[in-house]
Amino acid sequence: MKRLIRRYTLLISALIFLSLSHSKGASFTITVGDFQFSPDTLTNVNIGDTIQWIWLDGLHTTTSNGIPAGATPWNEILDSMNITFTYVITIPGTYYYISVPDLPSMQGQFTVNSLIGISSLVNEQFDFSVFPNIISNKFAIRFSLNETVPVEVLLSDVSGKWKKILLNKTIAPGYHDEFFCLSEDISSGIYLITVRYKNMLLTKRIMIIE
After folding, report:
1. Phi and psi dihedrals of 103, rounded to 5?
2. Is residue 123 over pLDDT 80?
3. 74, 78, 81, 86 alpha-carbon torsion, rounded to 10°
4. Whole-angstrom Cα distance, residue 185 to residue 162?
5. Helix, strand, coil: what percent of the chain each, to 5?
6. CATH code linked to domain 25-112
7. Do domains 25-112 and 128-208 have the same CATH topology?
8. Domain definitions of the chain by residue range
């Protein structure tokens, strides 16, 4: 009797293991080095799959820069102290990401199939422009909306640690130019302008001179 129970226990354990093994998604590796993501484009990704960035050299980030609504944004440093970052896919759509210190050249994207196995439509693309750039003390951001939504505009240093909220309000549909005047305590250098729209974060690099 004990031997029979032991056999059933082993059988049940094996079935559970097989079930978990089959339910686990695929893993995709993106190397980060030599000022590029490799590969920089993935197309056959499914919900439940894992994307892993692996550092090779330099100082970079992997930072979401336009992702499907409902997906979790990310902003992770990749260097000799932080050599990997893993992201598990839960929402279909197209994900765009960048390395903040290496804008605009170092960018990547991956497209996640829908639950039924058909590539989902790319979410409405939102973009913005900054003018002028190079900036002295005044500049504007131009963008368009097709619905009334909250919009947040942030100014940060290239590390992303220091941030200043320039705008945080609900904006009506249409084309918009939002004007800003920088305070005198912001020194010359390279900065980042980030616009948060719905669940998307888009970033552009700017240069400020006194």
Report:
1. -60, 150
2. no
3. 50
4. 13
5. 10, 50, 35
6. 2.60.40.420
7. yes
8. 25-112, 128-208
Q: What is the 3-state secondary structure (H, E, C) of 38-104?
A: ECCEEEEECCCCEEEEEECCCCEEEEECCCCCCCCCCEEEEECCECEEEEECCCCEEEEEECHHHCC
- The answer, yes or no, to whether residue 68 has pLDDT greater than 80, is yes
**pLDDT of residue 200 exceeding 90:** no
Residue of higher predicted confidence among 3 and 158: 158
Cα(42)–Cα(49) distance, integer angstroms? 12
Domain 128-208: state its class.
mainly beta
Q: Amino acid letter at 142?
A: R
**pLDDT tens per residue across span 3-33:** 444 444 433 444 443 344 444 578 899 999 9
Helix (H, G, I), strand (E, B) or coil at 10: helix
Q: Hey, is 182 helix, strand or coil? A: coil
